Amino acid sequence: MTADLSQIVKAYDVRGVVPSQWDESLAELFGAAFARVTRAEAIVVGHDMRPSSPGLSRAFARGAVAQGVDVTEIGLCSTDQLYYASGALDLPGAMFTASHNPAQYNGIKLCRAGAAPVGQDTGLTEIRELVEGWSDTGAPEPAPAHGKITQRETLEDYAAHLRSLVDLTSIRPLKVVVDAGNGMGGHTVPTVFTGLPLDLVPMYFELDGTFPNHEANPLDPANLVDLQLRVREEGADLGIAFDGDADRCFVVDANGDPVSPSAITALVAARELARNGGTGTIIHNLITSWSVPEVVAEHGGTPARTRVGHSFIKAEMARTGAIFGGEHSAHYYFRDFWNADTGMLAALHVLAALGGQDGPLSTLVAQYDRYVGSGEINSTVEDQNARLAAIRTAYEDREDVTLDELDGLTVTAADWWFNVRPSNTEPLLRLNAEARDEPTMTKVRDEALAIIRG
C-alpha cells in the first residue's frame, strides 16, 4: 500500500507525529528522494534536540549515501546554523526539527545549495511522489558506488559569521535574560554571545526535546510569562525568547512588555539600510504594521509588500536583491545570510541598537511602533470561501476603502486596515487588524469578526 504523505508533507516542509505518521524507514526514503531531486554530489544534514531527531537524521543520511551522495553531518544545530552550513559549504541541506511543535512531532526543513528554499513548487512535490512510489514498490535502486558520511563542526564559524554582520564593538554593558525553551538556543547562544559585554541570565538552556518547562513557541503569550517575570525580577535591560529550532526570536523590554515583531522588523530595516549606504529594498509581508514601510521610506529604502510565508519572502528577496525582510511571526531574512531567516542575527541587531544608546528599549522601539494592532485571531469556520465572500460583499461598495487579494482579502481605509487569510491546513480564517488608535482598531476588529463568525 502506497504511503499517504498528504498529512505530513506541508507547503514548506515535512512535519508529523513520530512514529505514527512517519519513522526512520520513511526518513531513509526522503534522503534518497532528496538526493535524486537535487542531483547533488554532496549534502549537509543537521538536527535539533528532539529524542527522535538523531535517528531520523542518520536514516536520511543513509538514504542519500545509498544514492551515491556524500553527507556532511553537523549534528546538533539550530535551523539557521544549518542554513549557514548550506550557504558556506554551497551544499543542499536537511534540518531535522519540528520547530515549535510539541515533543511527539518531528520534521524536515529542506534547502538547495546556498540555503535556497525547497517547497511544494521547488522540489517538495517531486520528493513526495518518489517517497510514495518507493513505499509501495520497495527501496530505490542504489547507486553503483555509495557516498560517505563525515562529521563537521560549524558552530564557531556560524557564530563568527553572524558577529561579522553587526557592529558590536561599542555597545554598553547590558543585562539580558534569554529563554531558550529547552530548544536549540541553549546550544547556540553561549557561543554567539561570547566576548560581548553582556550579563547573560540563561533560562531553560538544557537541551530537552520533551519541553518540560513550556512549549518552545514564543508566539503564544503563555510561553513568554516566565521570561517576562524573570526580566522584571533581574532588573534586566531586555529579554529574548527563541523557538524550538532557534530560527525565530521574540523580544520583551525591561518592563516585561513584548516588542512587536513589526517594530523589530522596522528597527533592523533601518539599521540594514544604514549599513548599506541608505539604499536598498526591504521586504515585509502584508500583515506587518504600517510602521514598517513608513520607516523604510524614511530611511531611504524601498518597501516591497509580499504574501505571508517564507517561500514567498525568499523568492521576493532573490528577485529584488532585497537586503532584509521581516514577518509578523518573527522570521527575519538577510541578504548577507543567503536570504535565509535567522532570529539570532535579528537579536544581535537589537542588542547593538540598545547598547549603542543610553535609553531603555521601550523608548528606543517607540519610534518603530506607531499603531495599534489586534494580533492574529483565528476563527474556525465551515466554509472559508463563503466567509471571505461575505466580507467582500460587506465592504466592496464602500467608497472609503480599497480591497486587494494578494493573500486572502485585505480591506484598507485611511485610518485602519484588516486582512483575513484562510489556513492551508485547518478550517480556520486568520484575522489581523490595525488602526491609528485603540477604539478604531477594536471597532474594525469586532466588525470583521462578526462577519467571519456569522
TrEMBL record:
Required cofactor names: Mg(2+)
Residue intervals of the Alpha-D-phosphohexomutase C-terminal domain: 376-448
Domain of life, source organism: Bacteria
Keyword Isomerase: yes
Pfam families from the UniProt entry: PGM_PMM_I, PGM_PMM_II, PGM_PMM_III, PGM_PMM_IV
Keyword annotations of the record: Isomerase, Magnesium, Metal-binding, Phosphoprotein
GO annotation terms (biological process): carbohydrate metabolic process
InterPro entries xrefs: A-D-PHexomutase_a/b/a-I, A-D-PHexomutase_a/b/a-I/II/III, A-D-PHexomutase_a/b/a-II, A-D-PHexomutase_a/b/a-III, A-D-PHexomutase_C, A-D-PHexomutase_C_sf, Alpha-D-phosphohexomutase_SF
Signal peptide: none
Residues annotated as domain Alpha-D-phosphohexomutase alpha/beta/alpha: 7-132, 156-256, 266-371
Any one GO molecular-function label of the UniProt entry: intramolecular phosphotransferase activity
Family matches, as NCBIfam families: PRK09542.1 (NF007088)
Family that this chain belongs to: Belongs to the phosphohexose mutase family.
Name by which UniProt lists this protein: Phosphomannomutase/phosphoglucomutase
Species name: Streptomyces cadmiisoli
